[in-house]
Amino acid sequence: MRWLPGSLFKKKSLVIRRIQTAGRVLLLLLYLTPASAQQPPFFALAPADSLHPGRFWAALGTGTVAYGAAMAGLYHTWYADYPSGPFHTFDDAAQWNQMDKMGHGLMAYHESRWIYSAARWTGIAPQKSAWLGFAGGQLIQTSIELLDGFSTEWGFSWTDMGANLLGSGLFLGQQLGWQEQRILLKMSAWPVRYPDTRIYPESPAGNMQWTTLQQRADALYGTGPVSLFLKNYNTLAVWLSVNPASFLPERPAWLPRWLNLAVGFGADNLFAGTGYTWQADKSCSGPDCLRYRLNPVEYPRTRQYFLSLDVDFSRLGVKSRFLKAVLGMVNILKFPAPALEVNSRGNWRFHPLYF
Fold this sequence. Notes:
Helices cover 41% and strands 15% of the residues. The longest helix is centred in the first third of the chain and has 27 residues, at 53-79. A hairpin with a 4-residue loop joins β7 and β8 (348-354). By secondary structure, it is an alpha+beta fold. It starts with 5 loop residues before the first helix and ends with a strand. The radius of gyration is 23 Å and the shape is globular. α3 (53-79) packs parallel to α5. The protein has a six-stranded antiparallel beta sheet with strand order 1-2-3-6-7-8. The chain has a two-stranded antiparallel ribbon with strand order 4-5.
């Protein structure tokens, strides 16, 4: 972590203290949960019936290293090239058509789900594991929000924190109430082909330094698969995937237990947090700064709503523990299927296959 600026490194001490606090909570659970004299093999994928010390310490160590590496990598990818300053808050509730909030809820939900599975593997009781999943999801998302709070380009957002709580809360409520996840949060993304029309500056007048929507999207959202799924709000769709069979006392023979009904939310033509104008260099000030503006009629900011079928991979009934673990990880992705779309402009469209 030598590449961290000294002042920012000191500010991250709060994150380190959160890691230590989480470790103390896990240690407390270690002593409060009774251990069994007979333990399953360490490398078996089946959850232990009672606390397995070897698995516990392995999971704790792996989780701590993964958390630290993820935070360091995230800082290097998203924050290192931007100026930092004193901690501050920022109201971004009206930005990005709330697609960023949906992303926060989505990741908090699955982080809680994955940490729950790891805790169950160590033998921690289901209810305690559910609460650990909730706490772990909030730890990760709060750490990201703290990084935002020290960046002059962004800020600590209370609405982001609310979305984080809703995501982890959706997991926790279902796990405590139904002991299963009947309503899933999922995601899908597909690259967008932007028109290559030249966009000339709105100001200063007469400047011919043009750009394109592809260049703007690359500068705003980044490139590569991570940016495609997590940062590009023009490609991301977040889905609420409901399993009808789990709500029925007796499942009809014609209804597969793995078939879900999914409602999706997306957006299009988002090239600024709000509105249609952006500045090429945010640090620039004065009348000579390059400012661009899109035509709202030609590129209207649009909300998209989808209705589709989905597959709950955790309900496929596979016997292999390894395949179950793999399917549990990929259950964050919505299964490609036909979809019906309606947008905020009242336009309807049928997609033979949507992902």
